[in-house]
Amino acid sequence: MNNNLGERRGARSHGLRALALAAILAGGSFHGMSYGADASVVVPTEPAYDAVPQGIPTAEDIATMLNVRFHIGLHDALKIGEAVLQAAQRDAISPILLLAVIAVESNFNRFAVSVAGARGLMQILPSQHRDIVLHASDLTDAGTNVRIGSSILHDYLEASDGDVHDALLRYSGGAKDYPRRVADRVSVIKTAFPIQPRIPASETAAQFQ
């Protein structure tokens, strides 16, 4: 597994560029689901947070959901939303999937620490990922933690030939019910983002100023 983030940015597989986001949003299970070249939703090559396609939440959408459903302060919630969208864009992973993993791992508590020493939103375990964490200054920082966690999940997706169920098993260290728990969170989180016409970003961002 190549964990060099700088080198890997230019080596994303074309297969993972075509996301199965439609399948994630429509279904409640990851069995048999893969990120493949014939998937129907493609992540844009450049971030476009002022013109996000219908069905893809904005950072403000995510922040509102986290504030209402998980009681996260708007300032921290917006940072999480921005971190998730940036990681989803870079690693070609559904932002809904990343949010679901974070919900299972830490319930959006950026200060969470497990008994095994896993830290932050995506519960990064320094002892298992020394080559990545070595250069991370603060695993409680949303941007840092989500960037690393998403990169690890991306590697597991590639190692699993795009099989989301298998990649989640690897991410959890083999916990058998982990993919189901993540799928359950996907089902809950996706209801916060109904597909509807976008309100201009300038209007939705105003409440976060």
UniProtKB/TrEMBL annotation:
PANTHER family: MEMBRANE-BOUND LYTIC MUREIN TRANSGLYCOSYLASE C (PTHR37423:SF2), SOLUBLE LYTIC MUREIN TRANSGLYCOSYLASE-RELATED (PTHR37423). Residues 84-178 form the Transglycosylase SLT domain. Belongs to the transglycosylase Slt family. This is Lytic transglycosylase domain-containing protein. Coiled coil: none annotated. It comes from the Bacteria.
